[in-house]
Each structure stands twice: as C-alpha cells, then as structure tokens.
Amino acid sequence: MTTLGAAPDGAVVTAVLVSHDGARWLPAVLDGLADQTRPLDHVLAVDTGSTDESVALLGSRLREGAVLEAPATSSYGDAVATALATLPEAAGLDEWVWLLHDDSAPQPDALEQLLAVAATTPTADILGPKLREWPSLRRLLEVGVTISGTGRRETGLERGEYDQGQHDRIRDVLAVNTAGMLVRRHVLERLGFDRRLPFFGNDIDLGWRAARAGYRTMVVPDAVLFHVEAAHRGVRPHPAGPSSHRRGERAAALHTLLTNGSAWALPFMVVRLFLGSLLRAFGLLLVRAPGEAADELVALAATYARPWRVVGGRLWRRRTATHAPRDVRHLLAPAWVPYRHGLDFVSDVASALVSQAGDVSAARRARAAATETGPVPDEAQNLPEDTGLLARLVTSPVCWLFTVLLVLALVAARGLYGAGTLTGGALLPAPASAFDWWRLHLEPVHALGTGSTSPAPPYVLPLAMAGSVLLGKAWLLSDLLFLMAVPLAAAGAYRFLHRVTSSLPMSLWGAVAYGVLPVVSGAVQQGRLGTVVGTLVLPWLAHAALFLGPGHDQDRRRRAAWRTSLWLALLVAFVPAAWLLALVVGAVALAVGLRAGDRGLGAAVATPLVATLVLLLPWSVATWTHQGAASWLFEAGLPLPRLTHVPGFWDTLAGRVGDGAPAWMTAGVLLAALVALARPDTRTGVLRAWTVLAAALLVTAVLAIGTYATATSPTAQPLWLGFPLVVAQGAAVTAAALAGTGIRRRLAGANFGWRQPVGLLVVALAALSPVVSALWWVWSGSDGPLDRGRATDVPTYMTDAAADDPDHGILEIRGSRAHGFSYVLLRGPGARIGDDAVLPSSDEQAPLTRVVENLASAPEPADVAALSRFGVSYVYAPAPADISLVGNLDSVSGVTTGSATERGARAWQVEATPTGTALVRDGDPLRPWLLALQGIAVVVVAVLAAPTRKVVR
Amino acid sequence: MNAAAREPGSRRRVAERRPRPTLRVTRAAVVPAVLVLLALVGAGLTALSGGTGTATVGAATTGALVNHTTFACPDATAARGTGSSVALGLAPAPADVRPPSGGSVTQGPVTSDGRPVDVRRGSVVDVRPDGGPAVEATGGAAAGLFGFRTDTERGRTLAVDSCPAPRSQWWFTGAGAGLDHSSTLVLANVDPGPAVLDLHVLGPDGPVDTVATDGITLAPHSVKRVALSEIAPQTDELALQVSTSRGRVVASVDDRYSPRPSASQGQEWLSGTDVPSRTLRLAGLPATTDGSTLLVANPSDLEAVVDVRLAGKTGSFAPTGLDAVTVAPGTVESVDLSKVLPKKEPLALRLRSRVPVVASVRSVAGDDHSYATPVAPLVGPAAAPVVKGADPTVQLTAGAVAAKATVTAYDATGSKVDGTTLTVKATATATWSPKKGAAYVVVEPASRGNGGGTLHGAVTFAGGGAASVPLTALPLRVERPRVHPGLR
User: Which residues of A touch B249 (CB under 8 A)?
Assistant: First the structure.
C-alpha cells in the first residue's frame, strides 16, 4: 500500500478495480487511473479468477501487493469486500472508495470533478460520473440510473443519444453505476452489496438502500467515464452461457423491486411483476425472440420459486433503512414510464410489420421521395411535410370505395338489426361470451347430449381468439363476419390484387367483384359460416403464398411458408375440404416449379400442408374416430340437408350454390376471365389463375359425387360446395384483373378491327357485373334463412337450472309423428356455434334415441326412469308440439306438466331427481397433450412467420 | 407474336415468318384451351352429380305389437226407453301378426279399478253398459281390441259409436243446442294425471261466446258431461272443439235431432276428428236417405272456399247443382244436399279447401239421423260391429289409385261367417253387406305392394233407425316414428 500523500482537498481516495478476463481493456483503464489530475491515494485491484493475462497486466502496472486475487465464483460485492478488508482502519469521514470496472476508463479529470462536487456538497455520500461509450465516443450510456415499476433499468436517455451537454446537471439520483462510483468508505462498509445480487443490478439496489438509509446519491456529469458494459452486452463471456446475463439482469431487477419496495405494495407488486413478465414473454415471442422470452420466464421462476430470498432480503434491508419508502419515491421512475415503453414497443413492432409487408407502400414512399427531391420552392418549404391523414383519406379512392361498401353493408343488413342474436340456416347462435369457445376448445368432455369426448371443431380456437379480442363479445364477431362480409372480403381481395396487378382501378374492381361473392353465392343468406370465413381468409392466404415462389430471398420464402401455414390452417379450420384443394394446387405448382428447376419449392409447398395438420391438432387426429372421415368434408356450421343441393352447370360456373343472385350476374367476370386468356403479355399470371380455377372446379366435381354423413348427423346428404366455387370465382376475378391492367391504353392503341369492339363489350360487361351484383345485394338485403331472433326457445327457468347443474338437462324434441322427430339433450341455454360438431355420435346416443322413440310412440314408466339416468330434468317440445307426443307425455306417470312460455309449445318436468349415471364423464387422456402440442405449434409457427426484427441494444 | 414484333427487321421479314407465328399461337393456345376444358368438365361433372345427391330421410317404422291399449266408451245414462249395450271384441290376428296368448282386459268405472273381462281372441262379448267406460288391456289382449256402444229405442232410433282412445284434440261438426237439436258432450279422463281442456264453439254467425269453457279441469279418472245448451243456447248448428292444454281426454257427442218440427228426436253418436284439414273425406252416407245436410266449419281467420266432390259407384264426380261452398271465418255453414246427391248410390264426399276446415254430413232416414264424418285412411285392419236388427253396409272409397280390401264377417265366437275381397276402383266407392249371423266385420286393406291404394271407409246401419261408424285401424303395432338426434 502506498500513500501518495494527502491531497489538498483533504480527502483520502482508494480506487478499487475489479477485473475478470478484462485484458482487452485493462491497459486503457490503468492508463486512465494513472492520468488522473487528482492523484489517487491508494489503488487496489481484485481479480476474480481471470483466465487471460489480466493478473499479469495488473501486476506489471500496479505496486506489488496491490493486486488481490479472489476465487472465480466470487461476486462483485465479494471482490469489493475483499479489497476493503485490506484497507487500514478508517481515518475519518472524508475517506472515499472509487469503484472501477476492468472495462471502464475514467477521463483524466474524472476524480477531480467528483471530489469537487463532494467538497461543495458535503451531504453527498455517493457520487457517480457520466458514462459514455467506450473508448471515447460521444454516445451517452448513463447519467444516473433508476428503476421503473416493471423492473426496467431507466436511464432517462434515448437509445444512442449523443452527449451534447444536454444532461449536464448535477442532481440527485436513485443510483449510479458501480463503474466510477465514488462512495464514502463508511457508507459502503455499512451498506455493502447484497450477496443475492452477484453481478447485475447491485448498483440500483445499493443506491436504493442508501436512499432509504438517508444517504444522498448524486450524479456529476462533468466527470466522464467510458464504459464497455461488457457483461451487459455479452462481450464478456459469462460462465453460465450467453443468455444468462439477460436472466441475471431480469432476476436482479425483480429481486430489487420486491425487496426494496414498500411492504404494503408488495402483494400488488408480486402480481404485477408476474403478469407483466408473462406479457413481456408473450410479446417477445411475437417478435420472434423466443430466447429472450425464455430468459424472462426463467428469471421470473427463479425469483418466485424462492420467496425466502425476498423475505430475507427485506429483513436485511430493514437493518439499515431509516427513511420511509415514500421518501425515495421521487427518485424512482414515474409510473407512466413502462406504458410509454410499451407503446414504443408496439409501434416498433407495428412499423416492422408494416415495413415488412408494405412493399407497395415502400414503393409509394420511394415515388414520393423521388418527387420531393430537387429544388423546392420557398412556399412549399413552409407547408407541413405530410398532407395529413384526413387529407389523404379524403382524396383516396380506396378509402371512398370501402366507405361506400361499408354503408352498403349497413343498408343491406337492414333486416337483421335489433335484439337477439344472428341465427338461422346453417348458423347457430353465438355463445354468450368468447370464453364459452375457450371452454369448448379446452374441455376434454363436453356436457352435451349424453356426454361427448369429441374434439372441438378446429374453428373454435380462432373464434375464441377473435372473440377475446372483441372483449369476449361473441355475438359481435358473428355479426361482423356475416353483416360485414362484403367489405371484409373486398379488403382482402384489394390487398391481394394490388400486389399482383399493381393497378389501382383493377384492384378496386376486383375487390368489389370478389367482395360480393359471399352474398352472390348465397353463403351469407344461408348462414354458412365456413364459406363466409373462407371467402374472407382466401385472399390473405393467396397473398402469403405469393412469396413462396422463386424470386424472393430465402428468409422471405421461409417466412412466407410459415405465414401461409397460418392462413391455410385458419382456412382449413373453417373449411376442411380446402386442404384437399390446397393439396391439388400445391401439387400442380410443385410440378411446374420442379420443371423450372426450383429446388426450394418442395419445402415451401409441403410446409403449409403439413403444418396445418399440426396446427389443427386435437381435431385433425381425433376426428377420425369421433366424427368419422366425412367430417373433413363438411365445413363449419350445421349441415343442412334441406338447403343443400348440388348446383347445376351454370350455377357452378357462376359460383352460385345457395339461393343467391341470378347466375347471369357474375357472367361478366367469367367472360372477362375467358377473354383474359387472349392477352399475351399477361398470360403467365392469367394461366396460373386459370389453373386454380380449373383445379377448384375439378375438386368441386369430385366433392359433388355422392352423399356423406358424419357420426353426429347420420342422414346422408350432398356436400355444400360453397368454398371451392368461391375459389373458382376468386381465380376468375384475378385472371380478369390481371388482364385488365392497362386495358384502356391497350384498347385505345389497338388497330381498328373486330378486337376493339369485342374488347370494349367485354370490358363493359365485366365492369358492370360487380356493380349490378352490389346493387342486387343491397336491394335484396337479408333475404334468406339467416335472421335475428331469440337464441333459444327453451324457457329460461329450464336453461337456468341446466346452467346451474349440468345434470338437470333439457330434452328438446322437435318434429312430428309424420315427418319424424329430432331431439337434442341440452345442458345449458342451447346449442351454440361449435356445439353442433361435438354432439355425441348417433351411435353413442342410441340408447337415448330409443327412449325418445318410446316417448313418441307408447311410453312406459321405465322410459321416464331412463330419462333421469340420462340426466334429464325437463322435456320440452317447441311449437308446434306434436299432438301424439304431447298426449303420450301427458299421460305417462313420472312426469308433470311444466309451463312453456311460447304458445303451442309444451314442457314437462321429470319428477325423479336426475342421476346422470348413464352419461359419459371421462375424457381422452391424450387430449391435454394434443392441446398443448397445438398451443406450442401455434406459437412456434406464429414466431416463425413474424417479420425478422433486428435486435438493437 | 411478341418475339416477332420485338425483332428489328423489315415488314418483309415479318411476312416471311408468318407461318411460324401462327404455329406458335396454336401451341400457346393449347394450355389455355386445356384449362378451360378442364373447368367446363368440372362444372359439367358437378351438374351431373346433382341428381344423385339428395338427402335420404327414412319414414316411420312399425315396431313391436302394442302391449297396452286404453280407450273409453262414451259414458251416458240411457234415455228412457232406450236399450244400450257395450261390446268388447278382440279381432282375429292378421296373418303376419302373432300376438302372445294371455294378457288381461279390464272394464270399469274410471274412478276405481275395473273388473276383468274375458275376451278371447276372435270373440265379442257384451259387457254391462253401466259397468264403466274405461277399458284397459295389457299383454296379448291389447293388440286388436275394440269396443262399441250401441243405443236403440224401440226399433226407431239407432246409435252406434266406437270407443276411442284418449287424445288431446277433438273436433265435432253437427252438434246443436236448439229446440229440435240438442247435444251433450261426454268427456272422460282415463289417465293418472289431470286433464285441462278448453272448449271452443263455432256457430253459423261466428265463434260463440261461451262462459266458463276455458281451463275445464278433469281430475284423473273422471267423467264430465256438458250439455251444449248450457254453454251455447239457442243455436241449431254448432261445431265444437275440445283441446287439452294438459293431459288427454276421450270425447264423444250424444246428438239428438228432430228431422221435422214436433217429430220425436232421433239419436246418434257424433264421431270426432282430430284436426281441421285442407282435404277431408267424409264416409258413412247411407244409400237411402230422406235428406242430407253438409255442415262445414271454418276455424281459421280466412274465408274458406270448399270444393265438394262425390265418390260414387264408378268414380268421383262433381255434384250437379252445387257450387263451391263458401264459409266465412269462424262460422259453420250448412248446405242442403237433398237435391244434389244422387239417389240410391253409395257415396262418399271429398272436400278441398285452401284453409283447414272440419265437416260432416247429416242424413235423415225416417225419424232417425246419422252422420258421415271425416275418416282417416286405413293403415291396418279395422273392425265394426253388426247390430242386431239393422243391416250393416261396409262402404269403402279408394283414393287416386284403385285399392283392394279383404272384408270378413265373424260371429260372436270368432267363426268366419262370410267374407269377400272388395276391389274398389280409383276414386270410387264400393259396398258390401255380410250375411245374417255375423257379430262383427273386419276390413283389412291390402298392403301397398299388393296392389293397394289408400282406402277410407265407414259402416252404415239401416233398419230400426240409422247409424254409421267410421272405420279406424285397430291398435296392433306400435308405430315408431323416426327419431334422430339433431339440432334442427
């Protein structure tokens, strides 16, 4: 130990330099120490088991005996404590310790400036310099530091902010970095470093405890220190692996908050940090940072799994605390800071997404930039840079078109407003809340009928997700999908067509021509949920699939494959037969692509097809045994034998499956698609569209053969062919739009002859077709089985009883003796969207069917006893109740008449208490695993499909 | 073409190459042509499949033999001078039905347990008319059991009624509550639970405001008689609806009517039909009458225009001198058919209307009258009694196709007395009368596959008064409707 003589300021300063594998930076650090204008009284170095030449370097530059060695496992606090232990007894209050890292080099006047402030402000106990980027850059790292309520280290600086003196103000802060921290020796000895914070976050913790103990921490911007932040940036190899520094930092932040926060806020803090960490992890997953998400969760688990550490830490802190927690609150980050960061994050992600997907907008910006360059008149310079959102909207034809479509949709839905829920045709009412969908998706046994272990239909998960986004309002989702089907379909079509044609008029035309398909085909009127959602999803799927082809870089194609997987899975969830169509189209594309020598196409085509099966997991595997293979052919919604018939030739070509528009209305589009083949320069694209068209119609022809029955609805019936015909129509629209690009110029430039008038005629017909269709749509309105009404006709007292105890089921029997009866055993307010596909199979319900047959023909008391075994409390026959059934039930003993609210309906109550012994109660043990696998698959695919984000620190 | 156009060169060069571009156009047109063709083939194949794919819906199936039959014979004390009898019979089993032996039949008052009645297969036994109306049969005796009540008065009036099974809807057309026409509704609840019923009465001027006819409660196992003069006095022609809101009842109307003023009243039991219908077939017109009146009631809110056709010996024809009958909403219309109906021809009526109606024809023969009421198609064997002292006539009317039926007469012990196979021409009416000594007749329509169309029928009685009973299928098999689980 060397005494360099008492400095004029009377203070004694000991520099403590802790090093660990820092040979890269040590020379500069030691130079910085040696160059101090205010010489140091003592210099001590503690090396914690460096494997490089750090020890040798230190030994060569420092006095013998000044280099201490500590074991490699020792923390920063241990190292400092080791150094302090070798110091002689404290001489007085004016004895200081200057903590330095092996990657932090002070400017020559750093110590002088620090001590100057210490001299003028005697109350200051801890002083810290301004940290700038190594080796001598102007970028600011820290000017004092604090912590936010979510555990984020807050510097109050923008990322990469340059030091222009804007933060040069001596002020009180919560904490300063240990790199360059000048602290009174007695304060350091009294407070010490928390042993539970070995490497990260111990500076904030020290500052916080110092503040609680009544000490004052100040930052001195005139003192400058250059810092590598080697551990934080992962430059310094960490013993526990590259990602452990993130874990360590996060765990330290959690520990710091939990141990230093006020006691009464602790429970709130515990919950907030828990949920906040989960949210952060989720957000990190969304931006394809699964490693960081895992670190987040590991840190959370490590902290929360050892609550005694927090308790111990709090007790230890109480030892030194003299001030109330609220006295230091002004030093903590304001409460709104985390939300601002959240907003920044979201907008970052959004802009990343937009810039990823926004090829079009990028091109537009490029054009705009091109026009803006060059000499600018003075007046223009004074104008605001952007014309403003409103101005852009008002002048945008796209905006106008969609406004018109929205208004038309509102007008066309005029018959479907009012109380009640949307139901009718193939559509069941939406459940009371989206959580019912979650429950349906997750529960292993559905209390419907005699109990069902069927997997939930795959569309329940997307519905549950979308419904949750709409704050759980399931009815709103149903309304949006059906009443806004046209604008929504048009939006997707516009996006796709603008990408493939890059012609505004043609994409607007195509958007309308495609947008009216849900109503023109009759899908909306019949309440065909599958076809409607399929129509909405199809353009997005096509858009994602565009980037599968050659001509895009490898990363883009890989992401496009995953994104296509997501869209295809969403589509197949609603229209399982679409998988077949995708297989055919994919096979054709693969055949063509392989001939052209594109080797990456195989994976790009196979990935979505296979991933879809995994994404729809419990259903895609389990439906074979529960609902039978035919469930792959029926789309979402009730199978409606009465309303389903195979369309004729012209209806097939016109894409008219239900009772939609007259077939001639879409003839213009078809004609245009046909004529489009004649234009040579766009023929490649048109041929692709026609390939899809032909494939769709051939698949339609295959699906039209024969009748099919699922296990729940054993009546064999033809399939509803809505979706493949929509695909054909969509392909026709695409072909026409491709060939129509620049058609005016082309027609004007063509030689006089037969082509020009024919071309004009086709263009006119094609242009009129969507307009006429839209007019027809608005005029005919909501003309079809789809209607708004009461979701259930069962009296409320029954549904309430059933909702309270599922064993108090309601046996609803419809129909008549002449036309046959159908029954459903309800365990709640009635069947809702998704319930139809999880009904027990008719084989499983055969015993109950026999009981109902007996009730309808010649009931005996034994049949009533059987009812209670099936958990039936009520029997309900909606109006018009069949006379013979009513007579039977009125005359059999064991049931009493209940009140039916509706005229013509009848209700009975079973007198015996339902036992429900004949019900299925045990689910498939494999189901939770399949669900978990699906959940992981969804997250993984979503992460893989998300745009690549450059991680900036 | 493109390549040619891009090629720098003179017109001559282009002209020289003219054959090649056309060749290339042809080749380039192959792929589009194939695609268009494939699309058309797809649409064509789809359209071809259109006929094959129709949903198949099964019909009702007949299941096991019934093993429980309940019905009630109208329970009314006989008027002075009237002789009443109730007979129970067990029809011989058809060829394809093998009912088990055993089983029991009980007859008794509705208020207590009945007495056992020994009814052998094929036999008819008389039971005490005051023994109680409720008849219950279980086991082998339930299949094919039938019962009849007969009332005669000194060879002047005759009334015959079958004992119907309980149900919840009854319509009677032809009742009355005037000086010359009085009717009494006889109700019985044979079930273990109470029955709650409403009575609605339609008159010539519209619905009759009745008092205390809503929510009439019949306790379990009870009988109630309602004189129509109490609820709708001073109306000669009435239509009456009995509908239960809970439980089932057996309803009959005891109808007394004077064909001429101051003449003594004849009696008849008026058979009920279940629901109004757009097409009605009225059977049971006696061949010889002194006058007939068609009564049509329209319970709907719309005017009914009823088209009447007659099914005679050779086929159906429109009656001369009778236009379509217009019935105002909620009223009963009576039309005199005396001049319209051909004499001495067995007849049935077919009524058609755009709105559902109920109807009957009252025929007068001497001092007595009888009713031809709506009949349902025969879906199985039906039985009717042969009343001593009256000549029975089986009348069968075929639907749009010719039909056949086996008609057999049995004596009281079940021995076959007479029998024939009646062939009925399409839309025509055929008759048959059994030999003396018969106790009952069984009409078994030929099965559909065996050259049989639908048949409707009734048995009329003449001599010592007039009466008629519609033929309804015996309880033989439980008809099991098609039941399937389903949401809609």
Answer: none
Q: How many C-beta atoms surround the C-beta of residue A110 within 10 A? A: 29
> What token pair was written down for B101?
């032996």
Please check whether residue A615 touches B, CB under 8 A.
no
Decide if A718 and B55 are in contact by the 8 Å CB cutoff: yes
Residue B38 and residue A683: Cβ atoms within 8 Å? no
Q: Tell me if B480 and A814 make a contact (CB, 8 A cut-off).
A: no
Point out the residue among A645, A698, A883 whose CB comes nearest to the CB of B169: A883
CA-based nearest residue in chain B for residue A833: B487
Distant-in-sequence, close-in-space partners of B420: CB < 8 Å, separation ≥ 6:
B406, B407, B432
pLDDT of A699-710, one tens digit each?
A: 999 998 888 888
Token pair recorded at residue B345: 């021809």
| DSSP-assigned beta bridge partners for residue B442 | B383, B408
- Geometric angle at alpha carbon A608, from A602 and A613, rounded to 5°: 125
C-beta atoms of A853 and B47 within 8 A: no
Residue A528, token pair as written in the block: 């065909």
Q: Which residue of A has its CA nearest to B67?
A: A858
The whole-number average pLDDT for the span A98-122 is 90
Q: What are the pLDDT digits (tens) for A215-232? A: 999 999 999 999 988 777
Beta carbons within 10 angstroms of residue A659's beta carbon: 14
Q: Are A842 and A873 within 8 A, CB to CB?
A: no
Give the H/E segment covering residue A259: helix A244-260
The answer to whether the CB of A877 falls within 8 A of the CB of A814 is: yes
Point out the residue among A652, A721, A823 whose CB comes nearest to the CB of B485. A823
Which of A835, A852, A897 is opposite residue B483, by nearest beta carbon?
A852
Which residues on A lie below 8 Å from B482 (Cβ)?
820-821
- Please indicate if any CB of chain B lies within 8 Å of the CB of A824: yes
Taking the C-alpha atoms of residue B99 and residue B94, their distance in angstroms, rounded to an integer, is 10
pLDDT tens digit string along A124-154?
999 999 999 887 678 888 998 988 888 888 8
Strand partners, A101: A18
- A687/B31 CB distance under 8 A: yes
| Predicted local distance difference test score (pLDDT) of residue B3 | 41
Q: Apex CA A495: angle with CA A493 and CA A501, to 5°?
A: 90
Could you tell me the mean pLDDT of each successive run of 10 residues in chain B, 488 residues long?
42 44 62 90 86 52 77 77 84 81 76 75 84 81 89 84 88 90 90 86 90 86 88 87 87 89 84 90 88 93 93 90 91 91 88 94 89 91 89 91 91 90 91 90 82 85 88 85 81
B185 phi/psi in degrees, rounded to 5: -85, 130
- A886 contact residues in B (CB cutoff 8 A): 168
Give the per-residue pLDDT at B107.
Answer: 81
Are B197 and B244 in contact by the 8 Å Cβ rule? The answer is yes
* Distance set, CA A436 to CA A63, A465, A620, A803, A829 (Å): 74, 11, 21, 12, 12
Phi/psi of residue B260, nearest 5 degrees: -125, 150
CB A533 within 8 A of CB A539: no
Cross-chain residue pair A820–B60, CB shorter than 8 Å? yes
Residue type, A19: S
Question: How does pLDDT run across A908-951, given as a tens digit for each residue?
Answer: 999 888 888 888 878 888 889 999 999 999 988 988 887 765 54
Q: Are B50 and A647 within 8 A, CB to CB?
A: yes
The predicted structure's pLDDT at residue B11 = 45
- The predicted pLDDT at position A8 comes to 61
Which pLDDT does position B202 carry in this prediction?
93
How far is A720 from chain B, CA to nearest CA, in Å? 11
Higher pLDDT, B237 or A641: B237
- If you measure CA to CA, which chain A residue comes closest to B166? A887
Contact A694 B38 (CB under 8 A): yes
Phi then psi for residue A862, to 5 deg, are -60, -30
